[in-house]
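A brief tutorial aside. Many learners find it easier to grasp structure tokens once they have seen a single protein encoded end to end. The record that follows does exactly this for Anaphase-promoting complex subunit 4 WD40 domain-containing protein. Read the sequence first, then the structure, and try to relate runs of similar tokens to stretches of the chain.
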Amino acid sequence: MKKCFKGSISDDGTLLKVQMDPAGIYLATSCSDKSICIFDYESGECVATLFGHSGSSTLLHVSFLPLPPVSFLPPPPVSFLPPPP
């Protein structure tokens, strides 16, 4: 299967480097327009963009860390009663 990615969301710059996450879900690109973009591999949609670098972003390595789901529910009540005999 072949896919075509622009590499950047702007019209300026040249694609410098590409890295796929180990699960094959996301693709990280660095461009000469000083941006790093994270793309969803299936849809081709840019899901995150990093700006503000002083030089060209020569992306060397990206770590894609799987994060566990977060629960914002309060913890269950704690009983301080002694256990029954």
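Self-check: The chain is about 0% helix and 25% strand. If you spotted this yourself, you are ready for the next section.
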